[in-house]
Design brief:
Layout (H helix, E strand, L loop, with lengths): L3 H9 L2 H10 L4 E2 H5 L6 H13 L3 E6 L2 E6 L2 H41 L1
Antiparallel strand pairs: 1-3, 2-3
Helix pairs in contact: 1-5
Length: about 120
């Protein structure tokens, strides 16, 4: 049994699933609409949607004979919260690297002016 975050990242590991989520950021879509840009069968797209649904990233509703898929943002927000600490870690390192490089450039300018 895996935890929610593992399930989310596992679902996001596949580029087709990420493309499906990107499409759903534009609004709800049927399986047929989601399948349009892919060179794969509808059952294959349905399997990808099922993985996303099991991860809580997509919900489906039924409108007559059509099943409409919608993006569910809560798992993405949890993944973003997890990554936020790492983002801060790297931002701090890049800021220190930027300061060090600026100091090196200033030191080089000063040395050239003294020559």
């Amino acid at each position: 049994m895996s935890d929610r975050l593992t399930t989310t990242f596992s679902a996001l590991a596949d580029p087709t699933r990420r493309a499906i989520l990107a499409r759903l950021t534009q609004g709800p879509a049927t399986i047929n609409e989601l399948a349009e840009p892919f060179a794969m069968s509808l059952p294959s797209v349905s399997r990808h949607v099922k993985v996303l649904e099991e991860a809580g990233l997509v919900s489906k509703s039924r409108d007559a004979q059509f099943r409409t898929c919608r993006l569910e943002s809560a798992p993405l927000a949890a993944a973003d919260d997890f990554l936020a600490d790492y983002r801060r870690f790297f931002d701090e390192r890049f800021d220190r690297l930027d300061a060090q490089l600026k100091a090196m450039v200033e030191a080089r300018k000063t040395t050239k002016q003294e020559e």
